[in-house]
Design goal:
The longest helix has 14 residues. The chain is α+β, with helices and mostly antiparallel strands. The chain is built from 9 helices and 22 strands. It folds into 2 domains: 232 residues, P-loop containing nucleotide triphosphate hydrolases (Rossmann fold); 115 residues, RNA polymerase II/Efflux pump adaptor protein, barrel-sandwich hybrid domain (OB fold (Dihydrolipoamide Acetyltransferase, E2P)), CATH 2.40.50. This is ATP-binding cassette domain-containing protein.
Amino acid sequence: MSGLRTDVELRRAEFALRAELAVAPGEVLAVLGPNGAGKSTLLSVLAGQLVPDRGRVELDGVPWLDTERGIAVPTHRRGVGLLAQNPLLFPNLTALENVAFGPRAAGVGKAEAREIAAHWLSEVDVAELAGRRPGQLSGGQAQRVALARALAADPKLLLLDEPLAALDVDAAPAMRGLLHQVLRRQDKPTVLVTHDVLDAVVLADRLVVLLDGCIVEQGPTREVLSRPKEPFTARVAGLNLVPGVARDGGVEFGDTVLSGRVAEDVDQGEPAAAVFAPAAVAVHREPPGGSPRNALPVRLAGLEPRGDVVRVRGVVRDCSLAADITPAAVADLRLTTDDEVWFAVKAAEVAIHPLSGGSSGA
């Protein structure tokens, strides 16, 4: 069968990894989990850097690993492209030479390899930096060159290991938007390891949650994050996500347009999401007036005490939302399950992101 399929078990001292998953061609699978969950261990197994105690890894029906049959294809023969937290560029080579390294190592002639490298530098919007060495690049520029290098080798499988974790707050959104554009054009499977829920929202078609070496949740990204089953998933989800299609400065959701600030570029009419924190939401019995704000009618699904606040959960058009308000506000509003109320949030508190997976709530 086409795509990536893996079913592995690995034990190391007090840690054990047990993972069974599949990634279709062109699909991006995000692996989300806390430190020590086994995310990097899983990537090392896929890349061939670790051999598990038992299991099988195959791509497009070709076994890379089969412990029963004694098959263990080494890393350099797997055709894996890796983009890690740090660019790991060769310091003595220019950006163009760094990107051309993969094709050259695969036997491509020097001139053709440089053409391939120039193409990918252009694809990641750093063509003008071809002659610079890594020491002359910013963190975001170096990570773009590293992405071009990974793609220039025409990998059969792309592995992204916390690719935005080392970037500053200004460079990360631009790089995330670039990855969104690049990955949607890929026809190879991609596995993304991250601890940032926005990476999963923007980049991944499906999401796997890994805890203590075990997969505890998996499914389409939006479904897993909107209906978390594990406390960890609910904690990291911690954001409201309203899916729809991009409109000028906002997201069209049903017959409502939620306005906000564009955090990452998204084309008009493309899948997009309005993302905002529960703490930014006000709850009203009647449609709110006054200063311009976004408002959605919701049916209350539950009330959860959380220290000094109460998390009010509501549903609109199969989209789960949350608001954090004071116990006094809950009492004043006399909120109970199944009430119909309004959730309001100021546009300044809403971030507009591209949405992966091609599905929307519109």
